[in-house]
Amino acid sequence: MTAVTQKPQAELLYEAQLRKERIFRTHVGVTWLVLLMTIVFFFSGQNFLGIKTISLDNIFITENLAFIAGGLGETIRISILSILLAMILALLAALGRLSTFPPFYALSTFYVSLIRGTPLYLQIFFFFLALPQIFPAWATVPGLWAGVLALGMNYGAYMSETFRAGIASVSKGQREAALALGMTPGQTMLRIVIPQALRFAIPPMGNDFIAMTKDSALVSATGFVHELMWRATKVGRAQFNNLEALIVAAVFYWGLTLILTYFQNRLEARMSRGDR
Amino acid sequence: MSAIVKISNLDKYFGRLHVLKDISLEVQPREVVCIIGRSGSGKSTLLRCINFLEEPSHGTIEVDGLIVAGGEKGKEHRQLVHDLRLRTGMVFQDFNLFPHMSVLENVIEGPVTVKKMDRAKAIELAEYNLNNVDMLWKKDEYPNRLSGGQKQRVAIARALTMEPRVMLFDEPTSALDPELIGEVLTVMKKVALEGMTMLVVTHEMGFAKEVADRVVVMADGEIIEDAAPEELFETPKDARTLALIERYRSGSN
Ligand SMILES: Nc1ncnc2c1ncn2[C@@H]1O[C@H](COP(=O)(O)OP(=O)(O)OP(=O)(O)O)[C@@H](O)[C@H]1O
Ligand SMILES: [Mg+2]
Description:
The complex is a heterodimer of chains A (276) and B (253).
Chain A (H helix, E strand, L loop, with lengths): L1 H41 L4 E2 L2 E2 L5 H12 L2 H27 L3 H15 L3 H15 L8 H26 L3 H9 L4 H31 L12 H11 L3 H31 L4
Antiparallel strand pairs in A: 1-2
Chain B lengths: L4 E10 L2 E11 L4 E6 L5 H8 L7 E6 L2 E4 L5 H13 E4 L11 H12 L4 H14 L15 H13 L5 E5 L7 H16 L3 E5 L3 H7 L2 E6 L2 E6 L1 H6 L4 H11 L4
Parallel strand pairs in B: 3-8, 3-9, 6-7, 7-8
Antiparallel strand pairs in B: 1-2, 1-4, 4-5, 9-10
Helix pairs in contact in B: 3-4, 3-5, 4-5, 5-6
The site of adenosine-5'-triphosphate has 11 residues of chain B, from strand 2 and helix 1.
């Protein structure tokens, strides 16, 4: 008898739980909207109930929107190239960190320590301004590559820890099974350990990529890469419209982040589901 | 007839711990040898020394004419160990299937990567062995969608597809739910009947009695008894063997 009444009750509880979650999400969504409207209103230049809000220079915005937006492609390009370099460096650094061969271990820890021990801002300037002093030929290399090198090396050092954890997450039994089949340690690493480590490391790397799209703005300070931030500060300073220019850039960065976060969440959900 | 596996004066230390003490053991072709003993007696270590997953401290392992000495180093030694591993197949307690590969990919991985076998030929061989363990119907499935018994059957097929001269089983059914043990033992029996030489560490006394040609008893890193199953279970010579059998009879390990 109890078994008959218990099931609907469990279902009722579950439904109540779902309803609660739905109500919570609705409230959060509405509040977001209100906050967004408040900001928009704040910059609308309207007179409302005696409150005089800030008015933006709409003509400046319409005239320069296309120019600033033109930096979006460069921002994305530098981010993708840098994350690719970072992944390669991170993997090598992680392997070095796990190596029993002293020079590899030393190289890896040295690299990570040096990069983590200095500011990203400094590293960027180093690659743009200091490196040509050592190698004059470097000055002719497009600014994009200096930026990619700086961002890639910086993120590679931080991401190596993610890779190392990923490699460590693969059980000893997996290696033993591979060795027992006759695989060499190299084959075991390449075919068995790294694919599983990557699966583990992909979601955190997605987060790193999102962070990188924003850190790429630092590259603008050198004046050589014409991405979002560089374009915004250029027109903003020239016409004393920094407020408008930075708001436009902020909207682009934010929008980009929202889109990437959406894909990141989907990726994470898919990875956590297991096979493949 | 000469032995296909010959373990001579094998010693293994873990740090100061003397885990295997001067073990010598011969296994004839097509023989099935079960290894029993209490936990910590060195059964797994012995098995793992045969394919050098553990490097023996002293002594030699000979499989099908290839002799490899323990405690050596260098390129030549690594090559010998590699050749030794090609002659041995191993099945683990916790299966160790590769989770990022389908059943079929798991089984062809060895032949394709290690033996550089043509992929089509490897698939043919893999499908034959999967069919033999009744797992061909799951060939495109991923390991995490299989039951424990199914995983172990795939693991057996994976080892067999390398066409080893001897199969090593380390408690292949210990991680399984009781109702799944039977299917794995059935497959192992089939492999034995097909003439495979097998060393099996197990707690399954029924299997030992029915399938084994010899049962080896280990205690404290030594082989204390080595006899045909009927003889060993009826008239154990060592008091420790008797105690072990009593434990199994009373249902606990
Ligand atoms: N990698 C290792 N490092 C240190 N000690 C080890 C290691 N592997 C095994 N030992 C020790 O060696 C002894 C024998 O272990 P082994 O795993 O061979 O026993 P076993 O007979 O297989 O036991 P079980 O039935 O529990 O599997 C134990 O005392 C164990 O603690
Ligand atoms: Mg064991």
